[in-house]
Write a structure and sequence with these properties.
This protein is of the alpha/beta class. The chain has helices at about 10-25, 40-55, 70-75, 95-105, 125-140, 160, 175-185, 190-200, 205-215, 215-230, 240-245, 250-270, 280-290, 295-310, 315-330, and strands spanning about 30-35, 80-85, 115-120, 145-150, 165-170. Helix 7 crosses helix 8, helix 11 (about 240-245) runs antiparallel to helix 15 and helix 12 packs antiparallel against helix 14 (about 295-310).
Length: about 325
């Protein structure tokens, strides 16, 4: 991230809150930043960290980008900026990493400003690591600020949460996100209706919506939806579709399926299309409700919620999708 990157539009109030810690000289020993995926939690935490490391911060509180500390941050060699994250994708933060952190924190910061520790994602600490981490919070060291980032605060021990100042990022309104996407993408921006579809698909999370546009996720979602429809019409086999789907990123796919079920349930109650996850699919979803039972949709919804929780385990994803798709096929046979 650039040292000169501006605060994102929907984070302005949050930044003012963080800057007030500096102006009031009340830097928290531990700060917990929460919010849904795609709101820029990590970017905001990094902005705050480098601002506290900066020798000559700007009037708005941002780092100057010119001092020796900023140059070290830019080179990723600042000794007082510690990033704690899983060593491998899909792994947790282990106790060995926490013990190494505790050892480093026994030493004084090397510069005259602050030492910043960013733990992301904080909920990935295993039980032993979380228990050891408590030592960092219970016995804070000189000029040290620890920032924990998570989109799943409920998975953190209450003993850790209670020792942190809290900052919750909220989802901006869709109009703000669409405007920001248009300005960010400029000539590469798709038509506004498609931008709104990507924003809805991203649950209003701007950075996630940006990734969806750049990755053409809407096209992949549409392909998966066609397969979903073909199973409902008994034209395709759940087993063969699951065999192809397990090769796709599981978390987005589970969310897409869940969003279709939620929108189907909303169709039963004649909810406003603008409040749906998939406004561009509303006609097809409305048509599907003619052959579905509301009770069965709720049951499938429960299965999808359970599936989402199981994604972090060693579950066989092909079998998981088979179970979901077979239930979906049976649901469409009942009426």
């Amino acid at each position: 991230m650039s040292l000169h990157a501006p605060i994102l539009p929907w984070q302005q109030q949050s930044w003012e809150h963080l800057h007030s810690y500096v102006t009031q000289k009340r830097i928290p020993q531990a700060l917990l930043i929460t919010g849904n995926k795609g709101l820029g939690k990590q970017q905001l935490a990094h902005q705050f960290a480098i601002a506290l490391l900066c020798a000559k911060p700007m009037p708005d509180g941002l780092a100057c980008g010119q001092c020796s500390s900023c140059h070290l941050v830019n080179a990723k060699t600042h000794p007082d900026l510690i990033l704690l994250e899983p060593e491998e994708p899909g792994k947790g933060i282990g106790i060995a990493q926490i013990r190494n952190l505790i050892t480093r924190l026994t030493l004084k910061p090397q510069f005259e400003t602050y030492r910043m520790v960013i733990v992301n994602p904080a909920e990935r600490m295993n039980n032993a690591a979380a228990n050891a981490f408590l030592k960092c919070l219970e016995e804070p060291t000189e000029r040290t600020c620890i920032i924990l980032i998570t989109e799943k605060p409920a998975k953190l021990p209450a003993t850790i949460i209670s020792r942190c100042q809290k900052l919750a990022l909220t989802t901006p309104d869709k109009t703000t996100v669409v405007k920001w996407l248009g300005e960010t993408l400029q000539k590469k921006a798709p038509p506004t209706p498609l931008l709104f579809c990507n924003v809805a698909l991203a649950q209003g999370a701007p950075l996630l919506a940006l990734d969806y546009v750049n990755d053409h996720s809407l096209t992949l979602r549409n392909d998966c939806f066609e397969k979903w429809l073909s199973i409902a019409k008994q034209l395709d086999s759940p087993v063969s579709v699951a065999e192809n789907w397990y090769k796709l990123p599981a978390a987005p796919l589970i969310f897409w399926i869940t969003s279709w079920i939620i929108d189907l349930i909303k169709c039963f109650f004649s909810a406003n299309v603008e409040n749906s996850y998939n406004p561009d699919l509303s006609n097809q979803l409305q048509e599907l409700t003619q052959q579905l039972e509301l009770k069965g949709l709720y049951k499938l919804y429960d299965l999808l919620l359970a599936a989402r929780e199981r994604l972090d385990t060693q579950i066989n994803k092909q079998l998981l999708f088979e179970e979901i798709l077979i239930d979906w096929q049976e649901l469409n046979r009942k009426k």
